[in-house]
Amino acid sequence: MVQPVILVNGLSFSYPASPLVLEDVSLTVAGGSILGLVGPNGGGKTTLLKLILKLLPLQRGTIELFGRPVAQFEEWHRIGYLSQKMWSSDRNFPASVEEVVSSGRVQQRGLLRRLHASDRQKIQSALERVGMWAYQHRNIAQLSVGQQRRVFLARALASGAELLMLDEPTSSMDPGIQEDFYHLLEDLSKEQGVTIVQVSHDLAGATAHVTHVACLNRRLLYCGTIEEGLISDTLPQLYGEMRDTLLSELIAIRNSRASTPSVCG
Ligand SMILES: Nc1ncnc2c1ncn2[C@@H]1O[C@H](COP(=O)(O)OP(=O)(O)O)[C@@H](O)[C@H]1O
Ligand SMILES: [Mg+2]
C-alpha cells in the first residue's frame, strides 16, 4: 500500500481546564485523496488540523506526516495551510497578488535570499493554474473573496505544497464561486496528485467534491468513502439530523459517480 500522507492514531486533546475536545481519533489520509472533514461547530475540526500541523502540542496519541512523526517533521513547504482565521482577518494590507504568492517562495528560500528565475516561473504557473495571473499587479484587498482564496491557494502551490489543509475555504463565498473553487481543488488533485483535507460545517457543499468523508464531533463518527458510508454500521451512531443529511448526501453522490478506493481506518 502507498504510504499515507496523514496517519493519526488514538488522538485525544483538551484545552487547559476544559473537557476533551477530541477523543480517540484515528484516521488515515491516502495520497491524492480529497477528504471532506465535516461536523458541527465546536466539533473539533480546527483543533484536529492544528494538531496535525504541530500548531498545538500532542497530548495523547500519534500523528505521522509523510511517514514521519509530527514532532520530527520539518518539510513544512510540502504542506499548505489556509486557516479559518485567515478568512476573517483584515485584508486591507498593501500587498499585490504577486507579492503574496512570492512570499511563499521567499519563506522556502529563506528571507535573505533573492528569488531566482525558477521561483518566478513557479509563481507564474501557480497563478496561471488558479486563473489569477492577469491580476498579478492588483492589490489583494481589491479582490473578491473567491479571488483572494485562489491567490492563497497559488501561494501554497508555488511553495511546492503536496498536501493542502483548508479550513472552511469557501465560507462567505457565493454558491457559484464556491462551486468553481471546489472544481479547482478537484482538478489540482487529479492533475497534480495534490492531497486535500478540506474542513466544512456544511455537509452539502463539502461532500459533493470529495473522495472521502470524515465526520467529527469530538469522536470520529464516520470516516470512509461515500459508498462505504451507505452500508456502514457506524452511521446509525450519528445523531439524527447529521445522520439524515450525511445519508442523503451519500446516496446522491453515489448515484452520480463511480466508486473510489477506501483509505480511512
Ligand atoms: N484556544 C482555545 N481554548 C479553549 N477552548 C478552545 C480553543 N479553541 C477551541 N476551543 C474549543 O474547542 C472546541 C472545538 O473547537 P474547534 O476545534 O474550533 O471546532 P470546529 O472547528 O469543529 O468548530 C470548542 O468547544 C471550542 O470552544
Ligand atoms: Mg473550525
List keywords for this structure.
265 residues, alpha/beta, Rossmann fold, 6-stranded mixed beta sheet, 9 helices, globular, binds adenosine-5'-diphosphate, binds magnesium ion
Describe this structure in words.
With 265 residues, the protein is of the alpha/beta class. It has one domain (6-255): P-loop containing nucleotide triphosphate hydrolases (Rossmann fold, 3-Layer(aba) Sandwich). Helices cover 37% and strands 21% of the residues. The chain contains nine helices and ten strands. The strands form two sheets. The chain has a six-stranded mixed beta sheet with strand order 6-7-8-3-9-10, with helices on both faces. Strands 2-1-4-5 form a four-stranded antiparallel beta sheet, covered by helices on one side. A hairpin with a 1-residue loop joins β9 (212-217) and β10. α3 (97-109) crosses α4 (117-129), α3 (97-109) packs parallel to α5 and α4 (117-129) runs antiparallel to α5. The chain is globular. The two termini are 14 Å apart. Mean pLDDT is 83; it is low at 258-262. The structure holds adenosine-5'-diphosphate (ADP) and magnesium ion. The site of adenosine-5'-diphosphate (ADP) has 11 residues, from α1.
CATH class: Alpha Beta
Average pLDDT taken over every residue? 83
The fraction of residues assigned to DSSP E strands is: 15-25%
Compounds present? adenosine-5'-diphosphate, magnesium ion
CATH fold node name: Rossmann fold
Element pattern in H and E: EEEHEEEHHHHEHEHEEHH
Number of DSSP helical runs: 9
Number of spatially distinct domains: 1
Strand runs, count: 10
CA(first)-CA(last) distance: 14 Å
Find the CATH superfamily: P-loop containing nucleotide triphosphate hydrolases
